[in-house]
Write a sequence for this structure.
């Protein structure tokens, strides 16, 4: 536990925040088809991430594993 000076010059205790638990979801065949279509259409990765509710890193990693490019590095 760390002690820290509060704005009113009194001492307070600072407690570490809990990390958010990672939730892993399996890839469905429909999601894989959509990812491949987005790759062919050259859709920006940020837009795909919002639509599929997955991180950009997860999308890039899955595309790498499946053997096709995603984003600007192709």
């Amino acid at each position: 536990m760390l002690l820290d000076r509060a704005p009113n010059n009194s001492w307070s205790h600072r407690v570490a925040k809990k990390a958010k638990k990672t939730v892993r979801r399996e890839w469905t065949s429909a999601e894989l088809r959509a990812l491949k279509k987005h790759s062919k259409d050259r859709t920006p990765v940020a837009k795909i991430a919002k639509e599929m509710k997955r991180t950009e890193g997860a999308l890039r990693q899955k595309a790498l594993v499946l053997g096709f490019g995603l984003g600007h590095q192709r």
About this structure: The first strand starts at residue 2 and ends at 5. The two ends are 48 Å apart (CA to CA).
